[in-house]
Design a protein that fits this description.
The protein is α+β, with helices and mostly antiparallel strands. The chain contains 3 helices and 5 strands; from the N terminus they run H-E-E-E-E-E-H-H.
Length: about 160
């Protein structure tokens, strides 16, 4: 009798521990560029670039010559794409691991340039200082070049005097 109780307790503890782990593993945090109000949905479809985003795994899913790839970053051909301003179709009616099963339907219903209801992003777009840094760098280069030039000019004029 004791063995039966022990086995039951052990089985139940393993079962509940496994259930708790799978719940924690399957909940992803939507990205800041994701649309507000859809924290429980797993997939976005980005019609402008024909790419899916899996919130749970934090990966982009895209077709690469007939093979569906999953990567943390967008493919290089889309790296300049602005995720904050692009429209995101939230796939609320799909459960499973392969949203591209309905890819032809998604492409037909949400063609490139598709805009549905207005969306607000979950977070603010990060401000980049690359342009101001780029200006500073180019101004510094110009200043350094003009100093070099003026140094050379001084050197030449100094040499010309001798």
């Amino acid at each position: 009798m004791k063995k039966l109780v022990f086995a039951s307790v052990l089985f139940m503890s393993v079962f509940f521990a496994h259930a708790q782990v799978s719940i924690n593993v399957n909940i992803g945090t939507p990205p800041s560029w994701g649309p507000q109000g859809y924290d429980d949905d797993r997939y976005y479809y980005l019609p402008d670039i024909d790419v899916y985003y899996d919130v749970n795994q934090s990966v982009f899913i895209y077709d690469n010559g007939g093979k569906w790839m999953r990567e943390k970053r967008l493919p290089s051909r889309y790296r300049q794409y602005d995720l904050y301003s692009g429209y995101k179709v939230v796939l609320t009616d799909y459960r499973g691991d392969a949203p591209y099963t309905y890819h032809s339907k998604h492409r037909a219903n949400y063609p490139k340039g598709y805009k549905g209801q207005p969306q607000k992003n979950r977070g603010e777009k990060p401000v980049k200082n690359n342009k101001s840094q780029g200006k500073q760098k180019s101004e510094n280069k110009r200043n350094n070049n003009s100093q070099k030039q003026s140094g050379k000019d001084h050197g030449h004029s100094h040499n010309d005097r001798h």
